[in-house]
């Protein structure tokens, strides 16, 4: 049922008013700039509301046809769309004209325009629901100008286009179990170094260069000792603290732009808030490192009659726990059954320390250096006690060690879709590890191992110690025993 045509009044000085397209939201692929999609300024020639396919097939359904010129323009079309929407006839086909002889069509559905109030409707493309158009009254000359300025409007749309935020649900628990070598634990290793206090009352601190030099020395000393790690990255971390008195007076007061140049190498600087309290910013250094060959899991299963585990642990001056001795000649020892003895021999032959990185999936690596210069690390005495409790309770021990040969570690993605428990690779006796040192790392001189001794010795560089370090003390005490047997 076509709408009543309104004959335009002939006037050479004005252009007739027509119903045109107004693009409200672009498609997801910017297809509105192709000839198949409608564009702003297109002249509407025909509207078909209803399911035309059902009518052609002889089934129930109505088809309403409206052609230009449209009575009352946009407002008249809005009333038509409102009536069709109330009757649940939301399918619509729009046919437009560009210039004199170029035509295009859009199959869409009628939807309410929530941003424009009641009884206002727009069209949403069936092919791309992101693309929506509306109607607007324009003169024919204005439409032709818009069609001619298509290239300029494309450039303008490109400059005004903005990326939108999005959210996606992610199965974190499953991914952390399937794609990590140690489930629910990262392989990122780091140590945080606080700036060293330069006086006893901790009112002054050494500069940032001194902290960086300490981090560099710690890494080089660890590599020279035989710890199989490689440098990854270094960064500064800003830690907030309260300062007052002499500490505040001795720090840089960043109150003006002229003071900013003094902050580049400062380890502690202060700000004064509105209440007169000085807020201090401490520049700490975080050193990131990684094992040369990754981490290797060893499960030590215990049996009735096991009176000892068969290995001893010690600690380097840099805070690393390592296997210092393994019993030899006892085939029934848990260390021999698990393959730890063979791995220890290969580490000794490669001039490497067999560093323990985790016990029961808990990291046991050094993690911080205090302002006094003491290294926060794990106590070998308490660790020995825990391992002994494993032996008494017959609970298997799962430890991870840092290796130097990537061929020994699990390939990337090999732990995919595994069971929730960590997959432990037993070390067969015939495994031979090839030493693949990094060219950029300091290689230690092969140690001279005394006859009959299985302890790793790198001369004066290695000083295994027992300690009584707690939460309040970082002092290390020397004992006559060089290692802790468990």
Automatic annotation (TrEMBL):
Region (Disordered): 439-467
Stated name of the protein: Uncharacterized protein
Gene source species: Juglans regia (English walnut)
């Amino acid at each position: 049922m076509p709408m009543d045509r309104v004959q335009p009044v002939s006037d050479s000085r004005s252009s007739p008013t027509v119903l045109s397209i107004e693009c409200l939201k672009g498609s997801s692929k910017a297809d509105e700039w192709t000839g198949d999609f409608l564009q702003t300024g297109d002249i509407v020639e025909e509207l078909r509301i209803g399911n035309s396919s059902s009518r052609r097939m002889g089934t129930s359904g109505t088809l309403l046809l409206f052609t230009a010129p449209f009575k009352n323009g946009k407002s008249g079309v809005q009333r038509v769309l409102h009536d069709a929407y109330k009757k649940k006839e939301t399918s619509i086909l729009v046919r437009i004209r560009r210039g004199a002889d170029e035509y295009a069509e859009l199959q869409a559905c009628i939807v309410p325009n929530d941003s424009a109030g009641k009884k206002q409707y727009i069209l949403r493309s069936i092919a791309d629901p992101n693309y929506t158009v509306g109607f607007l009254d324009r003169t024919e000359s204005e439409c032709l100008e818009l069609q001619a300025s298509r290239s300029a409007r494309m450039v303008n749309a490109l400059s005004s286009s903005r990326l939108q935020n999005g959210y996606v649900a992610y199965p974190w628990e499953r991914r952390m179990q399937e794609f990590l070598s140690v489930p629910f634990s990262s392989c990122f290793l780091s140590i945080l170094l606080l700036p060293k206090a330069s006086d006893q009352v901790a009112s002054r601190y050494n500069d940032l260069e001194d902290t960086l030099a300490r981090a560099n020395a710690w890494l080089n000393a660890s590599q020279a000792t035989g710890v199989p790690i490689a440098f990854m990255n270094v960064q500064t971390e800003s830690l907030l603290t309260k300062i007052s008195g002499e500490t505040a007076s001795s720090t840089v007061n960043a109150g003006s732009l002229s003071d900013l140049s003094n902050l580049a190498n400062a380890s502690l600087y202060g700000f004064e808030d509105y209440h007169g309290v000085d807020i201090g910013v401490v520049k700490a250094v975080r050193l990131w490192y990684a094992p040369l060959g990754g981490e290797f899991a060893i499960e030590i299963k215990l049996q009735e009659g096991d009176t000892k585990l068969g290995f001893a642990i010690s600690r380097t001056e840099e805070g690393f726990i390592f296997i210092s001795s393994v019993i030899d000649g006892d085939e029934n020892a848990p260390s021999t059954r698990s393959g730890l003895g063979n791995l220890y021999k290969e580490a000794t032959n490669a001039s490497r320390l067999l560093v323990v990185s985790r016990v029961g999936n808990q990291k046991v690596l050094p993690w911080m250096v205090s302002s006094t210069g003491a290294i926060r690390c794990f106590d070998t005495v308490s660790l020995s006690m825990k391992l002994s409790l494993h032996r008494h309770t017959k609970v298997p021990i799962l430890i991870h060690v840092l290796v130097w040969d990537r061929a020994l570690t699990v390939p990337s993605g090999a732990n995919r879709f595994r069971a929730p428990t960590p997959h432990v690779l037993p070390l067969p006796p015939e495994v031979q590890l090839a030493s693949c040192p990094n060219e950029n790392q300091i290689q230690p001189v092969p140690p001279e191992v005394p006859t009959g001794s299985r302890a790793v010795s790198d001369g004066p560089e290695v000083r295994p110690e027992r300690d009584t370090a707690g939460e309040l003390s970082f002092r290390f005490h020397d004992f006559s025993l060089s290692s802790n047997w468990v």
